[in-house]
Amino acid sequence: xxxxxxxxxxxxxxxxMALLFATLSNGATSYIxxxxxxxQEYYTAYWxxxxxxxxxxxxPGATDPLACDRLTPEATLSARSxxxxxxxxNGLGILSTEFLLKLVKDLLGLGFISGSIYLxxxxxxxxxxxxxxxxxxxxxxxxxxxxxxxxxxxxxxxGLVGARSMIFxxxxxxxxWFARHIDYLAxxxxxxxxxxxxxxxxxxxxxxxxxxxxxxxxxxxxxxGTLTLSNSAGTFAVAALAxxxxxxxxxxxxxxLIFLVIAMVLLSGSATGILCIALFLFAILISNMVxxxxxxxxxxxxxxxxxxxLFLPEVTGRPDLFIGSLGTRLDRFFTALxxxxxxxxxxxxxxxxxxxxxxxxxxxxxxxxxLVTGQGGALPLDSTVTSFLVQIGIVGTLxxxxxxxxxxxxxxxxxxxxxIIAVSSLTLNINxxxxxxxxxxxxxxxxxxxxxxxxxxx
Length: 458
Known about the structure:
By secondary structure, the protein is an all-alpha fold. It contains 21 helices and two strands. 69% of the residues lie in helices and 1% in strands.
């Protein structure tokens, strides 16, 4: 028994360090490009080339060269005139190198699943209890059905892409052994926050400016570290902080991490990150307040939250935040909800349909079953709600949020983490944001283990 527990502890420590390494590797080429290219024109050229290879070639919009859908025709023509391939000589990375670095996270996920299955089969490691984790079991069973539906109507590859986006469910099923030692991963999440914060601070002073939108800080830049996109960086920072708060036994560096996370979300200009860190801090304050002051604090927090929400366009430097970003998300949500066959809307079109990975690999011209389309082709879906609505329908989407509710109810330590995940899911495909999706899988494994203990079947 002691030998088995020692093996579990070693595996948990290794997984924590491996996740840290995979996160740094995943966005390494993007980070290097921002840190080594001295010319804004070359940087724009680089992203023009990358965007031309994907589904967004040169649609009209603002002039942020990092976001493909904001490259203007004028910027595109100007960039192409200076031969954008020259930019690859400035550390922007070769495709094969970038592919291999991004592949690390997938190999890590497959390695964890394979290793866990080995421990279950050969070492008698525990597996998820179906009765205790009934909501999780329902979502897994339903997603499995939609996986085969996708293979039937969209092909094997799209089904596999969809299964990849649901990897957090695999972790929850086979990760019971890991749940016992999740504190190692929590400490690594804290270390990762520190590293990403340092990378983002370095990017502020050394990196190429990627946004021409006036930013309400002395520095006109929206850093993202190795998280690739600023919104992903801000969301990761808060989610990792909530994960650390939930599962780190000592929380010895909690206040330092709070300071770093606040700095990260402000510098990144992530509206989702700013709202989530405000919500996280309010919840911490309320939970530590004496009972007679809690009601007053709740009203104060609501008033402050409303004010913060109204000033988000100013804080993030995005005056069109509500009309542009929020409006676009709502438009895509209602398109997915109202502009498809009723049966597909209710039950889904299959895993992988309209995921970011599928559209990036196949382009927006590829037609899948139940494809959500807009002007010019397929619509990339930029929220978990809308993405799940297309893939697993209203039924599956409700099951996903039921799982979050069930997990929070059975695992009091992780409630704040699940709250952050739920809020972030409204503006991001949280199941496709690495490493947040991995953290979600490990947290669900822990919650399933806690539910099993509560039933007395551990």
